[in-house]
């Protein structure tokens, strides 16, 4: 096993480690032993032969990854599988899959017996750099993305980069969408690093932000950079656009909107597009989706406050750095969106 990097997430009531590197999944038995776990349910989107032996009695629960399965019905099915597996509050759940799996299984773990330990084994780049870390768990409703959820921190996260070797190019691009936006929220330009170091840098940034604001009361809003429009694009295309692709467009839009508001200069605006394009990510809106539809979906964003009727809320760059900007005029938002070209979902070779 090559050297595995460790990032500690230090919270007020709960600390845990994120391990990143080739073979990280093989740390699972030691992690479970340290947690004192007697039995686990391995909720997995990968073949059983790719799962590590947890070293304790276990039940494999198959899961279908993807946004279409990120539902309350899935949460119920997992909880019923936990009952069949005989899990008690002293046992644990292991979530092995992409970001939709860690989100959905994490919520099931938060609800089962009012909270059971969960260990994440993220298998996609998107999940490794972002979704599996930070304790946000949620599922979608027909009305919007991530509208039902809970904060439930994992007991450990094992980011085995070997999972990424066979990842389809488009899934890698989705992860790069989160890496690209990290450049504007404190991580700096990560393009010169190898993939493992990009993951480590992204997780280190997120760990530092979550440590300061576990429950989205302030600084953690910066992690939503590019996500307000990104989530709207996902929903408007019925998730035909991947999360990272949509966030990439949202990042370009955030730069343009900040420029139109006079918060940043044109060089900084151009830097957003250049960063996204350099990763091979889209910088256009999905064809066939009216601007009015995107604006309506953004009205449902979770960040809006009690004065939400006064406009939209975005996380934007500015003279004081990235911050939450409320009451942005919808006509201005529509005008900026109208300036973006449109096209099909990316189809990388």
From TrEMBL:
Domain 3-dehydroquinate synthase N-terminal span(s) in chain numbering: 62-172
Signal peptide: none
InterPro entries given in the database record: Dehydroquinate_synthase, DHQS/DOIS_N, DHQS_C
UniProt entry keywords in alphabetical sequence: Amino-acid biosynthesis, Aromatic amino acid biosynthesis, Lyase, NAD
Cofactor(s) it depends on: NAD(+)
GO molecular function: 3-dehydroquinate synthase activity
GO term, biological process aspect, one: amino acid biosynthetic process
Keyword Nuclease applies: no
Pfam families named among the record's database cross-references: DHQ_synthase (PF01761), DHQS_C (PF24621)
Ranges where the 3-dehydroquinate synthase C-terminal domain occurs: 194-304
Keyword Amino-acid biosynthesis: yes
Gene3D superfamilies: 3.40.50.1970, Dehydroquinate synthase-like - alpha domain
Protein name from the UniProt record: 3-dehydroquinate synthase
Organism (species): Streptomyces asoensis
